[in-house]
Every structure is written in C-alpha cells, then in structure tokens.
Amino acid sequence: MTTALTRFEPFAEALRLSDAVEQLLNESWVMPRSLFGGWVGTSRIPLDLYETDEAYVVTALMPGVPNEKVDIQLEQNTLTIRGETAVEQPKDAHYLIQERTSGAIERSIRLPVAVDADKISASLKDGVLTIRLPKVEHARPHRIAIQTA
Fold this sequence. Notes:
The structure is a single chain. With 149 residues, the protein is mainly beta. The protein has one helix and eight strands; from the N terminus they run αββββββββ. The strands form two sheets. It has a four-stranded mixed beta sheet with strand order 1-6-5-4, with no helix packed on it. A four-stranded antiparallel beta sheet has the order 2-3-8-7, with no helix packed on it. The chain is elongated. The N and C termini lie far apart (41 Å). The relative contact order is 0.18.
C-alpha cells in the first residue's frame, strides 16, 4: 500500500475562501444584473497566480482587449489590472443570445511579499496577459550550506 504525503499549508484554504467571498460579493447583489442579463459596472478578470523561487507570475484572460486599453499598476503590494472591451453591435440586429459585453474590466490581487517594481514585465498574446513580478532579493529562498567540523 502506498501513502502519499501532502504538504500542509494552513493559509491555502484561507486564500481560496477569500477569493470565493470576493467572487460571491462581486457577482451577487453588489453588481446587479442589467435588464439584458449582463452585469452592470465593472466585470472581473479571470486569472491565475503562481509562484516560483524568483517571482510571482500572473496570467489573466483579456480576450478582445488591445494593448493600449490595458492598464497595470502596482501599489503597496497590490497588483491592479484594468482593461476595456468593445463589442460592435449592428443597428439592425435583433439578438437571440448576447453574452459578450462591452465596458470596463478590472481585478486587484494582493501579493504576499514585496516584489521588485523596476523589474516587472508584461506581455499580451492571443488574449492572455502574462505579468512577471520578480521577488525582492530578501524574499527569495536561500540555501544554507552545512559546514563539517
């Protein structure tokens, strides 16, 4: 019989819970639906955030958002991504289904450690925004060698 060990991370569930609460608030009574079934106000940007030893990497879905309509800001360890989409709507069209919306999109996430703001890089390709946020040197893991006596 094989037993798999998993690393205990006490704050992993808390982070997922906070994301769930934020999504619940953003998608419920805080942002009411319009008469046509779309959200009123700013829409949320779906993203992934992962960590390596050297950096945090964010990949965010930004379909239909041109480079010049993307705004990325970092303030006090909070990364904010904003964009604006526009959907062409023909005047003589009578929609049977309309799920694509126009307007502002935004997402803010708090990073757990400081990053080197001068070395942040971003690229947008095929509707996927990738942001690389290098950690400051003191936040990176360091290997300590054991000296023999």
